[in-house]
Structure formats: structure tokens, C-alpha cells
Amino acid sequence: MSRTPVETCSVTELRRNPSACIATAKRNDAPLFITRRGTVIAVLMTIEQYQFMRDETNAFADFIRSSTRSDKSNYRCYLEETHL
Fold it and tell me: DSSP E strands: which ranges in the chain?
């Protein structure tokens, strides 16, 4: 399984040029990991990325609340029919 390359931006870079960090998140359509001394401390994402993540989480929670044990194996089908 290959991993998607992760974009990072240091706190110093973010402080100096926040527009460039935001542009990177937008351009890559992926969250940008903010680092301090090489350790990830935060995540920067566009509002569209955040809304998509929130909607996915809510759809999953709704499905889990409304499903029986046998239904849970059909989660992907549920998403395709009701959410995606």
C-alpha cells in the first residue's frame, strides 16, 4: 500500500507567509501539516476540505446509529446511495 506524500509547513513559514501555506493546501486539495521542530502540531485545510470531512464523519455516524450489525458491512454502498 503506497502512502500519499504529505505536504508540511513550519510554524515559522506559516507566520512569515500564511498566504503561501493556504495556497499549498488549496493547490494540492489536501490538508497541510504544520510542524514545529519537525513534529506535526496542527493541520491546515481549506473550508471545502473541512466540510467534506465533517460531512463524511456525520454520514458515517448516522449510518452507524441507524444500522444493524449486518448492515455495517455495506457502509460503502450506503455512502454511494445517500452521500457521494
Answer: 8-10, 32-36, 39-44
- Return the pLDDT at 3: 54
This model's pTM is above 0.70? no
Q: Could you report how far apart the first and last alpha carbons of the chain are, in Å?
A: 24
Q: Could you give the CA distance from residue 63 to residue 78 in angstroms, rounded to a whole number?
A: 8
What the block records as the C-alpha cell of 55 is: 460531512
Q: For residue 10, count CB atoms less than 10 angstroms from its CB and return exposed for 0-12, middle for 13-18, buried for 19 or more.
A: middle
Residue 56 confidence (pLDDT) above 50: yes
Cβ burial 26-40 (10 Å sphere, 16+ → b, else e): eeeebbbbbbeeeee
Is residue 63 classed exposed, middle or buried when 0-12, 13-18 and 19+ CB atoms within 10 A define those classes?
middle
Rounded Cα gap, residues 44 and 42, in angstroms: 7
